[in-house]
Specification:
This protein has five helices and eight strands; from the N terminus they run ββαααβββαβαββ. It is globular. Helix 1 crosses helix 3. It is α+β, with helices and mostly antiparallel strands. The two termini are 28 Å apart. It has an eight-stranded mixed β-sheet, with helices on both faces.
Length: 182
Amino acid sequence: MSASADPAAVIRRLGVTDAEPYRAFRLTALRETPTAFTSDYAEERAKPMADTLARLAEIEQGPGVLLGAFGHDGALVGTAGLRVQPRSQERHKAVLWGMAVARSAGGRGIGGVLVDRVLAVAAEDEQLRQVLLTVSEGNEPALRLYTSRGFEVWGREPRAVLVAGQAVAKLHMVRLSARPTG
């Protein structure tokens, strides 16, 4: 997937050369919206840059992808990833993860473009039959976005994460492909 222009942002694959802006963006997202993620800001901040580099190097090897949205000033303003399950009996599944858009870039459609691009990567993989994700209960904008892209809630996990002692439920969602399962 090559870099391409969108009225709101330039979307492209992230790699090891993006480690510093990716780490900074991710930490900001974790700090500003802690209930949206299963990762914890303090734990992630304590990890060395080597962990971020290793994560990005693994993603570069595929299958799957981590996309970044860059504003007109060149700043990273959004991310979304696709992690493909490695085991042969689960290779038909992928997980949409790390979806975040900077508050300063909200309301410009960047989240929708990121999800669409991740789903386009998934569609290129003939083995994939479904994409899964979780969304925090009460995050109505994200729920609307995912529903508008064909995801359906299939379950609810109560107390999926505890953020500062507050229990947050996660809704499990799936988007099935039109490919036959045979």
